[in-house]
Task: structure prediction
Amino acid sequence: MLAKSNASQQRAVQASRKITDAQLGVHQNLERLVVKHFTTSFQKPIAQHTQDAFDAIKKQVATSLAKGHTLIFDSCCGTAMSTGIIAQQNPQALVVGIDRSAVRLSKEYNKSKPNNVLLVQAECADFWSLAVAEGWKLEKHYILYPNPYPKSKHLKRRWHGHAAFPLLFSLGGELELRSNWSVYVNEFCLALKIVVDKNLVEKSNGEPRVQTVEPVTPLTLFEKKYQQSGQSLYRCKFRL
Ligand SMILES: C[S@@+](CC[C@H](N)C(=O)[O-])C[C@H]1O[C@@H](n2cnc3c(N)ncnc32)[C@H](O)[C@@H]1O
Result:
């Protein structure tokens, strides 16, 4: 029992540790990769568990949209603390929290959530692809503290280097990404600018910018840990 609590304390410290990694600035292959992903289509086969999860909520989302509700995604929601808060702040919306970890989604505190929350265990890229095919349009899209994958060779695992990046534009809405790793947010913001400047999408609104996250009430558990360890937090907000 003692060993277990030491291990979980260690995990908490690791999770709140500032990223000091090998990749120090924007990746040199970013532009090439973004352009490639916008000129080819996302063709990965959909994981069966994500297809099943999507099918299970499709009708509920359609009913909600038919009643005039809007749709918000909280992608990579982890324990879904943010999903609950966003749902309270947006009673007009159905807020879908998506995470691939059943363990995180099944935490005890997820059992009492506002009625306008749906939690889905799914792979985000596949889920976004199904949502685009279904014609869903988002009012807002949150991606809060995604796994940073800080090694240079892992650019393709970061969302802006991922083949699914164009799907974010198809889903639309006001996108907000947050991270404690400034390189991630700088790259994400630059990837958005590349898409806009090279006219890879039909139209765009405004200029993506990196901002710091003010130390207000934390939206997520990771944000809380980072704030408690005094780290600077960054975000990029953009209307897609
Ligand atoms: C660093 S945690 C942040 C969780 C939460 N947003 C927070 O701030 O507390 C990243 C989360 O992304 C999830 N995740 C990573 N890649 C994913 C993917 N491809 N599809 C769905 N979830 C993913 C992980 O399971 C994990 O819960």
